[in-house]
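Much of what follows relies on a compact textual record of a protein's fold. The record below shows the convention in full:
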Amino acid sequence: MNRSGSDPFNYQDHLDDEEELDALHQAKRRKEVIIYASAIATVAAASILFGVLASAHQGRVPGAVTVKRQRLAVEDYCQTLSDKHFRRRYRMGKERFWNLLHIVGDNLPSTGENRKNGCVPHGPISHAAHLSMALRIAAGADPLDVATNHGVNDNQPMVSFWLIMDAIHKSPQLDIQFPTSHEEQTKVAKEFESKSSIGISCCVGAIDGILIWIHKPSDSDCDMLGFGQTKFFCGRKKKFGLSMQAVCDAKRRFLWVDIRYPGTTSDFFAFDLSSLKDKLEQPGFLHSGLCLFGDAAYANSPYMCSPFRSATGTQDDFNFFQSQLRITIECAFGMLVHRFGILRKAFPVNVTVSKRNIAVLGLCKLHNFCIQSSNCGDDVVASDFRDVSNIIMEGGMVLPRIDRDDGSDNSWRYEEEDRLDNLLDGGQHMDDHDRDDCRRYRYYRNEIPRQAIHEYIVLNEFRRPDRRASR
């Protein structure tokens, strides 16, 4: 049909325009639906999130069953134990326990008694309970038994152990430090002189290495330290471990401890790269004429006296008198391991190498604290039979003399049969250094203490006791 004054009407174009408008309208509606749906989803998610946060803030789900736990009152518990049984379980006397708590207490976190939002479900864990659990773990006790006895969850004993270790390292009274003044060094040498049957007066400390037994380190530990897993496996002792170097005084207190290298590291190499060796080489740091006494793994130098190899005659006499002082560090290691049963077995799994170092250094500080608080120092008693059972069940070392419970309260004293052959002498090898490194001072014989002491023994005709007579 034609219309005057206008274009002819095209019905098909009209339909196309209607479809286009309808498509635009549908698109607009879909967009609105998507916007509305997104808003509803956001509100729902926020409601769920706020509900979870509110539920977490409110605490437990209503109606949940509470596992009743009775916290151990350590003060009352101590009164029920005799002095003998307390020392066997905590590896120190009651007086020392409370003195140690007084030292580390300020560096422990709050017990939770003054919480603003509610109270601790089973009551706060006191600082005394933290120390009690930590010392029981150090003694080699089963963490589950410790948790049951103290009325805490199964993870708390190890948590308390690390809390106490951190508190120990924050307490300057317990720090380990090599004597820096000549007066202090001379005092240490005088104490060693009293232990020498011929009056050797030049020993400022006894040095040796020991293997700290660990489980196979993780890949992350190896990447962090820059060593492969095989470097931690000591083939001589058939154990994964860390090389610990230490120096002690005549009272078997540690003066210096270093735990930085894996178990395959030789004693010579570990000491050669240590900070103490750098200090000893500084002119004037060490009093003139004084030196460390070590075994044959260390190189003779102006600050180190080690025995002769394949010695006969007067050299054998020298080795005997030198060992009278050198063996002090082996005694210190023996007391450390016999006191703290956790060192008689591989360190707990899932503990990083760095945390193991923190724990071992903390135990060395506790070792010094026990000696300083004792009149005689040799106060290590037999272990609790439950701890011995747990150590042996976990594959730990058997120490016959101290594990033998004869019912007496006598203190254990280190003897030759107590030597820790499973942990000592792992670093006596030359796999990581050259023999010439050990002979760098061979042209300075007049400056090496071993030469002067040997001449002193020859001049005075000192002789070691007859081996057959001493048996």
About this structure: The CA atoms of residues 319 and 341 lie 32 Å apart.
